């Protein structure tokens, strides 16, 4: 064994060179179980330490600068540690016009990769024609529609969602199908959800949306859009002064003539985000009791 004042090949444990630091668990052959070891130490660089520096995170028995991609950081008893994620690991990302994207005006081909694996957007998401179609003046290429799938992991937008341009071959907003909350901490002319003049969108497909915390909803001039009229938007609101402006979209009468759009029970009772899919997570005039055999939420009067 090498001792103090000698460079260790692996780790230095209080002057003694060891192949690994004392592990946090030891096997008890009597109980056939792993038990916490009072001798446990953490790997910190080339040293074994009793506790990690306060600005580092504990990952098993190591002191790390950041948790790996399959774990998230939590704090227990004033100790920061990495624990495995049960689902998608939470990841907060800057929104358009915020921090690292302060100069950006829209989601585009230059910044779309910054949203990979994001579950929370601190700020806003904005989609303008210069981002979707490209901006020759600023040497920005058109956005590959497939790349918009990065937003499927997003569950919260703290600011607003502004859609004034969308790919021609995408007929819905299903990339936001896991979006739960629009916070409205920042607003666009008083609006937290804007879908404007998108002639290719036929359904919203925001079926996970539970809350619009502040700001108004403005959905207008979308000539093919259906189901907007079946959603009880006020149930999503958290403030009495929030308003809904929905106008000049496809008429409910035209929508009802389309054989793919005819689900009277859904449309009249509880509202849908699209045809043949999970409807709004609450009923418009009824209460949710169970799922029926088709996998849709079923409504019961009451």
Keywords:
elongated, 2 domains, 302 residues, mainly beta, single chain, five-stranded parallel sheet, phosphoprotein, disordered C terminus, 24 nucleotide stem-loop, u2 snrnp hairpin iv. U2 a', Chain A, Hormone Receptor, Insulin-like Growth Factor Receptor 1, Chain A domain 2
Structural notes for this entry:
- The structure is a single chain.
- This protein is mostly beta strands and 302 residues long.
- The protein is built from three helices and 22 strands.
- The chain has two domains: 11-84, Hormone Receptor, Insulin-like Growth Factor Receptor 1, Chain A domain 2 (Ribbon), CATH 2.10.220.10; 92-252, Alpha-Beta Horseshoe (24 nucleotide stem-loop, u2 snrnp hairpin iv. U2 a', Chain A), CATH 3.80.20.20.
- The strands form eight sheets. The protein has a five-stranded parallel sheet, with no helix packed on it. Strands 13-15-17-19-20 form a five-stranded parallel sheet. A two-stranded antiparallel sheet has the order 1-2.
- The protein is elongated, with a radius of gyration of 26 Å.
- The N and C termini lie far apart (76 Å).
- Residues 262-270 and 276-302 have low confidence and may be disordered.
